[in-house]
Give the backbone structure.
Amino acid sequence: MEAVDKRADGRVDSARSLGSSGSSTDSLRAYLQVGWNSVHGWLDRYSATVIADLTQVQREHRIVGAFGEIGVHHGKLFILMRLAAPEDRCFAIDVFDDQHLNVDHSGAGDRVKFLSNVAYWSGSVDGVAVIQQSSLDISADRLLGEVGRCRMISIDGGHTEQCTLNDLRLGEAVLQERGVAIVDDCFNEEWPDVATGVSRYCL
Ligand SMILES: C[S@@+](CC[C@H](N)C(=O)[O-])C[C@H]1O[C@@H](n2cnc3c(N)ncnc32)[C@H](O)[C@@H]1O
């Protein structure tokens, strides 16, 4: 947190003023136009738009709850989900500096960059439950205790079969009835174990 305060000096104010002078829709639009390019990570523009729209559809259908992501890296998708629903509780799971737990080397989470990016683009890191741990070691009760039941969860942590299966089961346990799980790289031939994990989950 201390690192965020140092790094975010001044830059947080500009993001806050964006939020206070305009609506959260303006902040989301600004992020999609500018921020999306400046935050390192993996999220194509089409997926970003669909996920933002999905959040709006959930709101219209009164599907409420928290959101969160397993595998945030520098926050590229997480920030989008936060700007789409700034009032919601949320969690961010990543091994961050404990990269020896990132067994398949998918991305490389950086806690300082993540918090700095979230602070800059959403105005603060208030209400973000940051959990620096392998998702393999996190229980559903812990997550429910941190943020309550979820309406949306992005699964983009370890890309092994074991992690994918674990994260889907964790997601199922914390999502509410009409909640949505987003699985990254399911059809990416560079990460075939994700599809295997999804298939095993569906068996
Ligand atoms: C592909 S990156 C995530 C990209 C991110 N969703 C984005 O928006 O750009 C995968 C992330 O998962 C983290 N990770 C890898 N194995 C993990 C595990 N077992 N538990 C939690 N996080 C993990 C990595 O440190 C990395 O930051």
